[in-house]
Design brief:
This protein has helices at 2-19, 33-49, 63-76, 87-93, 103-106, 115-119, 123-128, 151-156, 165-175, 196-205, 226-241, 253-257, 271-278, 311-324, 327-337, 350-358, 363-367, 381-396, 402-417, and strands at residues 23-29, 53-59, 82-85, 130-131, 134-135, 138-150, 190-193, 211-213, 219-221, 245-248, 263-267, 284-287, 299-306. It is of the alpha/beta class and 419 residues long. The protein folds into two domains: 2-136 and 301-371, 3-Layer(aba) Sandwich (D-Maltodextrin-Binding Protein, domain 2); 144-298 and 377-417, Periplasmic binding protein-like II (D-Maltodextrin-Binding Protein, domain 2, 3-Layer(aba) Sandwich), CATH 3.40.190. Strands 1, 2, 3, 6, 11, 12 and 13 form a seven-stranded mixed sheet that branches. Strands 4-5 form a two-stranded antiparallel sheet. A two-stranded parallel sheet has the order 7-10. A hairpin with a 5-residue loop joins strand 8 (211-213) and strand 9. Helix 2 runs antiparallel to helix 15 (327-337). It is globular.
Amino acid sequence: MKKILFTVLLVSLLAIFAMAEPVTVEFWHAMGGGHGEAIAEIVDSFNAANPDIVVEPIYIGNYNALLQKLLASAESGNLPNLSQSYGNWTAKLLPRGIVQELDSYMKNEEYGLTDAEYDSIYPPFKKMGIFNGVTYALPFNKSTYVLYYNTDAFEEYGLSYPETMEDLQFAAMMLTNDSNGDGETDNYGFGLRTTVDHFIVFLRANGGAILKQNPDNSWEVTINSPEAKEALAFMNDMVNELGIAYAEGGYLDGPFGDGKIAMFIETIASKPYVNSGSIGKHGWAWAPIPSWETLAPPFAGTDIIMFDKSDEENLATWKFMKYLLNPEIQAYWSIKSGYMPAVSTALDTPQYKEYIEQNPDVVVPLEELPYGSIDPNIGEWNEIRTIVGTMVGDVINGKKSVEEGLAWAEKEIKIEFNK
């Protein structure tokens, strides 16, 4: 009898220990270097506070590698619990029925978000995660575009940072010079990248858009518009007609640090590279994107999405997602990574107040929040970006005229929609 009782007790204890096994949450991301270290630290703090859950961050590599792995894993059924994802990636994955909606978790009375917590998420970031009225993503690493400028050069020429595109062109003219007198330009007033993102900066500032969403949620191709023509011509003229802008496809923090260009537009995520490239050479600062017809600086960066697993895994995943929106965690992530906090309450934390006091320029991207613009949440957006990027490069490099480039892009985008 005692043996039977002992056996029953042993089985019961083993069952209890088995039930006590922590739930594992696999988190795929593309954040290397210091960003990856910050994620590891946040994960460690969550795991320490939640012994019943073990979040395992897995660095996949660059964004392209992450996208390809997600698409391949969607076919094989070997997806993680959680992943970084751009809006257009999420749109590609949604028709497969593998992405977990988040509204039921956010609205849950026991473990969801309070009204105050939900309201603290900046509205543009909320919108980036909503598809057909349903929330499938929460903001993760978010940035916006700003104007970086060489403060030494501006001081030498008695210039203040440009507030309008007309000011930008004037400052670029003033700061372009042939310093050694050999007849070749050595220092350009402005630098621009021949990419879709930099075209979008000028296009949206001029009130234009690549696509327009109609009231019935269909999309209209609007790239071949007067606003787009003016924006692309502005970029092209600065490079090829006026000779006051240096253009290339790669990042411009190197040419900026070396003094080859005095201004360029890029996201705030470039700050550490600009800082390291400029140390000992010249001072720098950033300013809001110069206005044109409107203020519409594009927001960049990814969200995080949950893949549908068991109820137990989904709840554990949700708890980590909610943890990432904690004001203190958002403040820590923003300070460590340079990305924008996703919640307004992060600005009220002691650590972020001290950070702003020591780094007053931090308020510049925050001031752009009410005016920011976002990309369309459609699966074709990645392919459309490729088309527009090719077109911009062809125009700036003299392979197509502005009119030819826009007409070609319009045709190719319509073909993409009709596939």
